[in-house]
């Protein structure tokens, strides 16, 4: 496989970080999580998707807020200090997220989760593309 130029790779990684920022910020507070969750529940029901989105409780809100807060900070780190190493680590995180999302759906979670899984897998795989070392390529 032909390596991608480092500048292109970093743009891809920053794009994935911006995606995370946009999609994840509603998880960061109890109020925005409740709005997002009710919207996802309504969409899932309107589409007739299998699985359930059970009512939120204090524990699920806590874990959702923790995840949202960490992903927001991680997104900002990749936007403000882009590096191939951060892209590789993000790729690992995305493959882990996708694994747990698939596990959740297989255990009865709402299939609407799979829309997020597809994007996690796409960005995860792309962030493992070989990267051309620009110093070596110039020589």
Would you mind describing this structure in some detail?
73% of the residues lie in helices and 3% in strands. With 139 residues, it is mainly alpha-helical. α1 (6-24) packs antiparallel against α3 (58-80) and α1 (6-24) packs across α4 (84-106). The protein is elongated, with a radius of gyration of 17 Å.
Shape: elongated
Main beta sheet: strand number and arrangement? 2 strands, parallel
State the end-to-end distance.
21 Å
Helix content: over 70%
Q: What is the overall number of helices?
A: 6
Q: What is Rg?
A: 17 Å
Q: Which consecutive residue ranges, at least 5 long each, have pLDDT under 50? A: none
Query: Structural class, from helix and strand content?
Result: mainly alpha
Number of strands: 2
Strand order of the largest sheet: 1-2
Order of helices and strands: EHHHHHEH
The average pLDDT score comes to 94
Multimerization state: single chain
Strand content: under 5%
Short description:
By secondary structure, the protein is mainly α.
Write the layout of secondary structure elements.
Elements: E1 4-5, H1 6-24, H2 30-47, H3 58-80, H4 84-106, H5 113-126, E2 131-132, H6 134-138
Parallel strand pairs: 1-2
